[in-house]
Amino acid sequence: MSVRHEPAAPAAAHDSVQSLAVDAYDLTAGRLVGTTGALVALVGVVVGGVALARSTGRIGNGNGKRGALVALVAGLIGMAVGAVNLAVADGGPGTGNGVVGGALALLLGLIASVLGGLALVRSRRTGRTADRPVHLRASE
Asked: What is the mean pLDDT of the chain?
């Protein structure tokens, strides 16, 4: 009688490598980081849009420079968080690693940075200040 002895180590190692099933509504650390990065970038998009509208003189009487800088910083933070989150993710969407949130943070961060940069360039080009709106001249 021949008895085959197979080591149990590969089966045990295979079981430890398998990730646990994550429900669609579970908030994991990866999802939290990805969502936070996406929210920061979304704030940057909104602030960048308002700053761009201010720099063209459509709303308010400021030049939008402060908002442009906030949008740039929020966009860069969102892109950095999204890129790091995507770099350390083990799987694809639905694995609980925050891949979707990281990709959204990367995209929204890029949009916020572009809007902030445009608003900053336009605010410098127009030369408007918050103290002296465009419709008032120095001679008036």
From this structure: 76
